[in-house]
């Protein structure tokens, strides 16, 4: 038997089926343990918010959790500087995937904004069922 080879270029387009909410939190604290405890509290608050709206708490996924020491250079004399500790900044990124067109999306965003300080939200529309899309090709 022979082999058939096909060369060329193809394109496939699919309609997104998932709304991805990316929740970014940035907060600064004087002490490391306060920053760490705030991070744990933020994760629990977010899970409580999604549960109160009727979602499973497990839809909240943590993709980033870091605490960094803030240092700034401070002038002490004409040509002399020293590093000064200005606290700890916690950075967290959570993702929440909802099915496209979920009627509770605006309620979720509203509660997140009201209940968690230092939050910024991003929305993206993605193909959640990648395997199903491959089978359609």
* Tally of individual helices: 3
Q: Give the averaged pLDDT, no decimals.
A: 90
Based on CA atoms alone, the radius of gyration comes out at: 23 Å
Please identify the oligomeric state: single chain
Beta strands, count: 4
Report how far the terminal alpha carbons are from each other.
26 Å
In words, what does this structure look like?
The chain has 137 residues and is of the alpha+beta class. It is 29% helix and 42% strand. It contains three helices and four strands, in the order βαββαβα. It has helices at 32-53, 105-115, 130-136; strands at residues 18-29, 60-77, 80-99, 119-126. Strands 2-3-1-4 form a four-stranded antiparallel sheet, covered by helices on one side. Strand 2 and strand 3 (80-99) form a beta hairpin. Helix 1 packs antiparallel against helix 2. The mean pLDDT is 90.
Brief characterization of the structure:
By secondary structure, the protein is α+β, with helices and mostly antiparallel strands. The chain has 3 helices and 4 strands, in the order βαββαβα.
Tags for this entry?
137 residues; alpha+beta; 4-stranded antiparallel sheet; 4 strands
Break the fold down into its secondary structure elements and pairings.
Layout: E1 18-29, H1 32-53, E2 60-77, E3 80-99, H2 105-115, E4 119-126, H3 130-136
Antiparallel strand pairs: 1-3, 1-4, 2-3
